[in-house]
Amino acid sequence: MPVHLLIVSVGNQSVDQLRSTQSRRLIAGDLCHVTAQRPQREAELLDGGSVYWIIKGNIAVRQKVTALEKLFDHEGEKCGLILDPELVETELFSRGPHQGWRYLEDADAPRDLRDLVDEANEDEESEGELSEEMAAELRSMGLL
After folding, report:
1. Could you report the per-residue pLDDT of 30-43, keeping only the tens digit for each?
2. Residues sharing a CB contact under 8 Å with residue 59, sequence separation 6 or more, in sequence order
3. Is the terminal CB of the chain with fewer CB neighbours within 10 Å at N or C?
4. What is the rounded distance in angstroms from the CA atom of residue 63 to the CA atom of residue 116?
5. Beta strand residue intervals within the chain, DSSP E
6. Cα gap 122→124, rounded to integer Å
7. Distance in angstroms (rounded) separating the CA atoms of residues 83 and 89
8. β-bridge mates for residue 9, sequence order
9. How far is CA 127 from CA 90, 91, 123, 124, 130, in A?
10. Residue 23: phi, psi to the nearest 5?
11. What average pLDDT is seen over the chain?
12. What is the pTM for the complete model shown?
């Protein structure tokens, strides 16, 4: 079963801004996010794991981790997380800030929005739909 990483997207205020920032970085080659520590659970991460990005206090989007690379700089060894360029928007889940990354178990990961849209289309009897922001607010109050 895969495990995921939870990382704060520093400096980005929206998924669109992250998308724009990363599209400029893709010109140079693979999309690589550098971390100080190499994940101990490497095999689980590479078995379908993703980076879940926290933007403005909410988990909002994910990217699949395709590889890990050893990198070196003047401070020593680092880890490069090679990411798939596709950003997959997720349900919004409130999450506080932290430094570095944290593991996120697969069972605790938010669902992809595209999966939720498919479910909503299958259930035509549902009345009004909640916006992602409203659903996140209701979840934070323990109502969803």
Report:
1. 999 999 999 999 99
2. 6, 52, 53, 90, 91, 92, 93, 95, 110
3. N
4. 17
5. 3-8, 31-35, 50-55, 58-73, 76-83, 88-94, 101-105
6. 6
7. 15
8. none
9. 22, 19, 10, 8, 10
10. -65, -35
11. 88
12. 0.81
Q: What tokens appear for 61 in the block?
A: 């989007």
Please give the structure tokens belonging to residue 62: 């994910």
Q: With left for phi above 0 and alpha for psi between -120 and 50, is residue 76 left, alpha or beta? A: left
Q: Binning pLDDT at 50, 70 and 90, where does residue 26 land?
A: confident
- Side-chain-facing half-sphere of 128: CA atoms under 13 Å: 5
Q: What whole-number distance in Å separates Cα of residue 76 and Cα of residue 110?
A: 34
Q: What's the chain's length in residues?
A: 144
The CA angle 75-80-84, to the nearest 5 degrees, is 160
